[in-house]
Amino acid sequence: MKAYTYRKEYLEKLLSYKDKDLIKVVSGLRRSGKSTLLELFREEIIQSGIKKEQIQFINFELPENYLNKRWDEIYFGIKEKLYSNVANYVFLDEVQNIPQFEKLVDGLFATENVDVYITGSNAFLLSSELATLLSGRYIEISILPFSFKEYLTAREIDMGNKYLNFEALFFDYINETSLPKGVALRDGGYDKIYAYLEAIYQSIIEKDISQRYEIRETRAFSNIVKFVASNIGSILSPSNIASTLSKEGQNIHHSTIEKYLRYLEACFVFYKVNRFDLKGKKQLVTQEKYYLVDPGLLNILVGKERMTDRGHILENVVYLELIRRGNKVWTGTARDTEIDFVCKTPTGEIEYFQIAWQLASESTIEREFSALEKIKDNYPKYLLSTDSFTQNRSGIKHINVFEWLLAE
User: Nearest-CA neighbor of 120 among 292, 319, 266?
Assistant: First the structure.
């Protein structure tokens, strides 16, 4: 099956900005599919009539493309190959590896008949001088690993088959990996996937974080990563992380923890979700929740104990799907209730989501529904669970989570 069938939404978005006077920035975790997306885009525009000679694709993960080269050398090397009086397309893959890359990007953007596309594995790409230089002149497409639907498509699963065991397939999805190349390795057995995830993780930790930010306390940093991974979906703060680790004999200052969390967010390992005051209708700035970019990485970070809280892992998957669909997401809080997610949709509407693995008892049913019932507005409210038989109540829509994940 061709890759564009399961990266279709990203590709269509990228195509919609073709030849627009904007720099196209594709960001996301290392190996999440950014380079593949640019390659698919290149194939599409060639099929539409653009000549190969009008396209320059430079991969800055290859040392020969950046070692001992200044940004201006690369800039003039690209300019020498441009064709005059026709559109040129320049792809700069993992551009953050170039010192002063923002000058390279700005120069190319200012060049006539040049359409610029860049990728990066670090969110600081857009909090650097580039954002200042190009304020209002770029569009960011943040790419995630495979959704559950994309994962099934990649495995060529017939989702129309009413006898499919979606729960078993979902366990495959969260136990293996959602990273595209990792999925492609599944025929070789889980050991291949595990080795791949381990290599990706080490590359992110050592190259993207430890080296870039000169982290010397590698053991402390590793412990923080594992602690946050063990507590996905739980309310955390640098202070309570420091307090918990201190009880285990690990003394790490909360300011150091805050800094490390920021690095992990910047490299798209974790996504931070702020709390939203349901009564005051405002964002709160303390005690956030964190979700992991790929549940499969829990195998590397947590090990055999990873499945002890299926509810939070399901919550993690739902969170990623919500942002994949273009929502802004908070966790909701009030004096006597907690809501898993408060969403602002791409059209500006508000929606509420409560996530439960299974409504297995009357107390669970009461707890999950009553949390939503306490919100006294008329915005849509959803309860997602793995239950095959759903039960709406008080205007709250109870939806099978697998059906929701596979919906258009």
Answer: 266
172 and 55 in a common domain: no
Quick: pLDDT tens for 246-285. 888 888 899 999 999 999 998 899 999 998 887 767 777 6
Average pLDDT over the chain, rounded to whole? 90
Helix axes 254-266, 218-230, angle to 10 degrees: 70
User: Domain ends where: 142, 177, 203?
Assistant: 142
Q: Are residues 267 and 135 in the same domain?
A: no
Residue 283 confidence (pLDDT): 75
Q: What is the spatial distance between Cα 72 and Cα 363, in angstroms, rounded to a whole number?
A: 65
Task: Indicate whether 47 pLDDT > 90.
Answer: yes
Note whether 223 and 257 are within 8 A (CB).
no
Q: What is the pLDDT of residue 4?
A: 46
> Do 109 and 165 belong together in one domain?
no
Per the structure, the count of domains in the chain is: 2
| In a shared domain, residues 133 and 201 | no
Is 31 in the same domain as 159? no
CA-based nearest residue to 86, from 48, 55, 118: 55
Please tell me the predicted confidence (pLDDT) of residue 195: 95
| 187 in the same domain as 107 | no
Same domain (yes/no): 213, 358: yes
Question: Do 272 and 384 share a structural domain?
Answer: yes
| Span 93-147, pLDDT tens digits | 999 888 888 889 989 999 999 999 999 887 767 665 566 767 778 898 999 999 9
Q: Which domain holds residue 72?
A: 3-142
> CA dist 279 to 282, 337, 369, 375, Å?
8, 11, 18, 9
